[in-house]
Amino acid sequence: MVDSHFAPNCPYHQGGDERKSACPPEAAPGTIVVEKLGLARQILRSDRVKQAGFRAELLERFGRREHAPVLYQGGEAHQKQRRAIARFFAPKIVSGHYRALMERLSDRLIERLRKTRRAQLDLMSLDIAVAVAAEIVGLTESSLPRMARRLNRFFTANAQVQTPRAVLTAFVLAQWRLLQFYLWDVRPAIGARRRRPREDVISHLIARGRSHREILTECLTYGAAGMVTTREFIVMAAWHLFERDALTARFLADGETERIAILEEILRLEPVVGALYRRAEHDLALEDAGETIHIPAGSLLALDVRHANADSAAGEYPHQLDPDRMRSQLHLSGSLISFGDGPHRCPGASVALQEAAIFLERLFRVPGIKLETAPALAWNPTIAGYELRGAIVTAG
Ligand code: HEM
Asked: What CATH number should be reported for the domain holding residue 187?
């Protein structure tokens, strides 16, 4: 289907290609673009590269790497931090504590939709994604809807701006919004946890002696890595399901394992984070079809998640949505590298998938549910990620 939101000359949106996010912005000049799944996985698993995405190299100039948020750390400090936060993402905790929260929140949002019969889907998905991640992080001392709006405005303020004046205005605005997020959300959460520590990321960071500024940066990382991603993915998954009655019937009829397999296939096809960046700290020797590829130290590597996920490992017609395709590839995750791979692989993957499954099941059970207005698609160039806005759903 050709959609007016896409670039007019996009070669992909013609026949056979079911992706809605097929034409992302190109990688920055000077990067080595890696498109093959096997190569991308070797790089993500290598201990000879460091994080270079999410403005990591800018952040490095301003702080100590070992006190940076988990996404930006490397080596032993990173492993230690991952081991420490693993307990917040353990399957028992996710299925016990967070699952009940996801169900409660979804019920509340769907109840409201049934009453008003009309809602903006990307605002519903923002509310649920923010609430779940906030619980894991420990941002629970302020109003959730207000925090969701604050974070939404903060991340929107960082969107594409071109002229120097616009860059300056956006910078000042972003600093102002950051201050508001700190004063309203982060500082009260730190205060409450100093008095009574809990089982969450902020309590853990306080115990490690991290400063307010470091905790604020970690909260923002979770805001981008956990909230923004899940929010976009829920809308993308709903958009595909609204267009496929048979798939939606299957989504509702089957159990949660099947629902998650469908969601993973949608995420394989439509990765929210379309580009992962790494800087080679040492020379690399990568294996590809019996050949060795040498990458010199210092190279900036852009891993193209969309291309890698359409590799031959995905089977025939990789640009089509087919939830059964990965069944024979039991050693690979259904979403391939949409949650990354190696030491930085997303710790929140099962949280995001469960959350999406729970919310979307309830949404599609609403009698007469329809997508009245499809979302408009824009791009976040930092991660080659899509942003879906203005999706309106109506109930019968
Ligand atoms: C559909 C939703 C999500 C997607 C597509 C996603 C994707 C990713 C990807 C690709 C990475 C790896 C980045 C890299 O290697 O450079 C990552 C890391 C991370 N994600 Fe997620 N994520 C999602 C949801 C979540 C949630 C719900 C949370 C937590 C509440 C979360 C927390 C994190 C954290 C803390 C990291 C950094 C891990 C590290 O560097 O060791 N993510 N995510």
From this structure: 1.10.630.10
